[in-house]
Structures are given as C-alpha cells and as structure tokens.
Amino acid sequence: MSLSKPVIGVLALQGCVDRHGPHIEAAGGVFKTVKTAAQFDEVDAFILPGGESTTMLKLIDNFGLWKSLERNFRAKPVWGICAGSILLAEKVENPAQKSFGILPITVQRNGYGRQLDSYKTEIEGCEVSFIRAPVFTDIAANVEVLAKNETGPVWIRHGRNMASAFHPELSFDTPSPMHRLFIESLRA
Ligand code: GLN
Questions:
Q1: Is residue 73 part of a domain?
Q2: Residue 153 located in a structural domain
Q3: pLDDT of the chain, 188 residues: tens digit per residue
C-alpha cells in the first residue's frame, strides 16, 4: 500500500477519539471520525480507540455494524488501542467476550488491576497512559514485539495491523512514535 496522505478512520462510537486528530495530521495522515458502514468504506486504515470494549461491542451490535467492520478489518490495516486491542484479539479473557479475531494474541482484560492502578510512563520517548489496560498473552510467533514492559509485550505488530495496551494519543508531543509508525507504513 502506498498512499501519500492516508485517511485514518477513528471508530467514534465511544472512548478517546478526538485526541488522535493532531497525531494523525502531524504524521501526514487525514483524521476522520467514522461510525457508519458508508464511512468505513471511505477510509484507508482504522484506529480502534481506547475506551470500554463492552460498551463498544453493544453499540456495534445495536447499530448493526459488525459485518461491515469485519469486512473492512480484513481488507485494511487496523490499530487497536487498549479496548480497541481487546476487540481485535483472537481470544479475550477475564471475562471472555466476542472479538473480531484479527490479531493472533490472547488478551486479559484489566490485567493491571483497577482504575487506581492506572499510570503514565514513557515508551520510545513518548508519555503514554495505561488506563485499565489489558495484558497481552499467548502471542503467536509471527507477531513482532515493538515494546515491552515488566508484564510482557505492550506494543505489537502483525503484518499491517498493530495493537498497543496503552494510550499514546494523550501526549501533546505530536506525532507519537506509534502514530508515526502506523501512518508511515501506509505511505511507504
Ligand atoms: N478496561 C477496558 C476494557 O476492558 C479498556 C480500557 C481502555 O481502553 N483504556 O475494555
């Protein structure tokens, strides 16, 4: 895929959406919020933002968006952040829930504990936030680990798809290295 200015659709049903705008634009992409099947077909790649995966699943089902999202995720690059990574995983635990099965990983929801256990840290020089984050377990051998912490991998790439357990979009230093890599790989 080689696009000079890829349009990145950030799924805007729930969660942290708008803060991606400055990072996407600074990395040379176009920021577009998407919530309908027609809008999904118009973008080059997706970000599934952090938020609450159970709420997102309910909204996806209520609005009848599952099939069109599934088709789009199989056709275009997608980056899942925190709740977004839970939606993309092959298997979800603690508790088990439905997912798109795009990434060959298992995730354990709320693997770091409760809201009080949320924290900020630095990854690749970027201030990132772990907010009731999942822990990535059972990662397939062909998954590339881009960053890890004491629990294991926290930023991974599989083909054109990516997942991060943390939120980089809350940083005011734009673009984050994660947005840069995702968008540069579309432009390369
Ligand atoms: N704990 C949330 C979930 O299970 C994810 C939190 C987040 O995306 N920051 O969906």
A1: yes
A2: yes
A3: 668 999 999 999 999 999 999 999 999 999 999 999 999 999 999 999 999 999 999 999 999 999 999 999 999 999 999 999 999 999 999 999 999 999 999 999 999 988 878 899 999 999 999 999 999 999 999 999 999 999 999 999 999 999 999 999 999 999 999 999 999 999 87
Q: Which residues are catalytic?
A: 82, 167, 169
What is the number of the ligand 1 atom nearest to the C-alpha of 167?
A: 9
Considering its fold, how many domains does the chain have in total?
1
Give the 3-state secondary structure of the chain.
CCCCCCEEEEECCCCCCCCHHHHHHHCCCEEEEECCHHHHHHCCEEEECCCCHHHHHHHHHHCCCHHHHHHHHHHCCEEEECHHHHHHEEEEECCCCCCCCCEEEEEECCCCCCHHHCEEEEECCEEEEECCCCEEECCCCCCEEEEEECCEEEEEEECCEEEECCECCCCCCCCCHHHHHHHHHHHC
Q: Give me the domain span that covers residue 28.
A: 7-187
For residue 1, tell me if it sits in a domain: no
- As for ligand 1, residues whose beta carbon falls within 6 Å of it are 50-53, 82-83, 86, 109-110, 131-132
Of ligand 1's listed atoms, the one at least distance from the Cα of 83 is 8
**Cα of 174 to ligand 1 centre, how many Å?**
23
